[in-house]
Amino acid sequence: MSKRVRASALLVLGLLAASTQAHASGDSGCDMQPGLRHRSYASCSDLVLISPGNDTRLNMLLLLADRGRLQPAVTRKETSDSGSPVPAAMLSWSALSAATGNDAVKADDDGSASSSPDSSSGRCVSNGVGADRFRQALQADTGLGADERKLLVDARAKVSAACGDPGKTATLLDSLPGKMQGASGKAFAAYLMSASVFYGPDPGSARAAFETLAGVRQPWVREAATYMLARTDLNVAQLNAFGDYGNFDVAKVDQAALARARSGMQRYLKAYPDGAYAVSADGLMRRVEWLGGNDSAAADVYGKALAQRGNGAAFVDLLNEIDTRLLLTTQNGATKPLATRDPLLLAVDDLWRMRLDRKTDPKLALSADELAAQQAAFSGDPALFRYLQAVHAYHVQRQPAQALKLLPASASRKDMGYVDFSAQLLRLMAMDDLGQPGVREGLLKLLPAATRPYQRQTLELALAIHDERHQALDKVFAADSQVRDPAIRRILLENIAGPELLQQQAANDGTPLAERNVALFVLLYRNLIGGRYAEFNTWLPRVPVDAKPQAESYQLLYPAPSLGVYRWTGNDKGYACPALSAITTTLARAPDDGHASLCLGEFLRLNGFDHIPLAAPNKQEREWRKTLSLSQQQLGTTPLLFPGGQGNRQAVYRRVMADANVSGDDRAYALVRAIRCYAPSGNNDCGGDDVPTSERKHWFTTLKTTYRTSHWASSVDHYW
Predict the structure, then answer these.
(1) What is the SS3 assignment for 202?
(2) Which residues in the chain show pLDDT less than 50?
(3) How far apart are alpha carbons 394 and 403 in whole angstroms?
(4) Distance between alpha carbon 356 and the CA centroid of its chain, in Å?
(5) In sequence order, what E strands does 333-480 have?
(6) pTM exceeds 0.85, yes or no
């Protein structure tokens, strides 16, 4: 991909970075992946375990936290996009950045946020704050008369209203200077006239006026004009570089104007190091270096910005900017790594490059030799360098033994930094992959020292994954369990738990009610769909008699399980059926009863059980799970511990169709419902593996011939 196209992506991402997942960090969308071993980008499943799979901005945030510059705020994402529970350890950059940067950053007077493309509309973004600062400057100037002050306030309001409208800004203030009596009033009026031109289609024509105003006696006008002179040059430099759709062409940057902008910003910062526009000038200096294509200089100014202390929102904005401007320049086909020796920026870029496949990205994927050559850059932070080498050994080289050599055991201490925490956890993960003992004990020993945000939650996830992989779910649900996250426990109950554990949690009065209800719902479902009808009838009385299905429940499980659905009273329309309790009583006595089996199918169909997340995986998902190595498995993906088969509605119909003892009318209805499983799209909507079209055609032919006298035969006129 050309540099021109890459820069086009940069601009678009810069505009969206505050509200979306930046593509420099991964694809858009949100698919929760509750695991620890994220070698590729894991959308909405970031961890405080610093890793290649994290959003690059989160990795920067964690490294900043270790340096005492910015701490991640605590936020809570209760559910995923699908409504399923999300472990507290799973983070998303959008939610985390919103909580961390909760103090709003305002643009400086007449200076847009540094991520703006600075088109005419972009220059208008600061008008509101600019008007406020202008009024404050007027109030502070005692040399202004009341009439002059009012005229100037009204004129500033007109500039705001007309911003970006070339027809208005050109002649808006022509008569204003003649109405001013004193030097201050004339200076303010001249500034407004220059600003109105700046906001018009030809910002460069305001340059001479700002240059003159940078020498006036009025202090606010002098400072603002000095800043605006540099900003005018910047706008001229990039005026023709952006197309109508944000496409950027570096060849169209006015390099002479860009050089003037650089020296102008430097001049302003030297004269006003703590000035009203110092923050904006710093940001625009970063833009100057980015526009100039000087990767090394851009990395230097970004590294200096990261070294400063600032409020949460300012740093969040900076991280977004680095991700979309600086780090992205080494991605999407570029042939060189990030040109920096700043250890924080280099570490983040290294982690990103560890995601890449050397076969598909041979010039970008990070090699062990290249990483080793960076050692001098990390001379001030050898622990971070050693950790990066261990991450490379574990995730890229797939050598957990080598990672262990780089991560010797160390005594846990209070308030572990995120690099130290990540190193200790990675060490235990490598031990687990190698089958070494002591992993669970090691995780428990880390808990007292896990005092920073999200560290304990991450250890709970690690414990749960370890116990699941080692068939020890009883430890997760023991009375003294350290796994307290309700989402983790729920995922295991819904996807893995066997009957004994579900019975234990459903009947344990010491278990929170929400968890008891989940366990009971899952237990009833597994027994019902697996043909354990007597067991179902044993546990059904625990559902309150007056329980009602939840109208707002998503897929019967979320936000809370709809236990009332099991109190189904039957159906007297179409295929008549009694209450579910009567159906299961019959099936417990006669599992092959055709009418009761079809009524079970009606219960499942009419109550939305076809797509419940508890359903057994189909062939495609089973094949996918077989491809997962032990180290790739996520929470809730090991085999189900509930014995026996897990049926589905399609299986009910096929069983009835194959039973010669079932009445003709019931077999006809089974054929109708089996055919309709594929209506109207041709895709199976009843669960289980797909049936070939030829077999569905046979069903239809049988219905129309063998059972043509059944009143069900006329209910379908084709197959799907």
Answers:
(1) coil
(2) 1-29, 103-121, 170, 330-335, 631
(3) 6
(4) 20
(5) none
(6) no
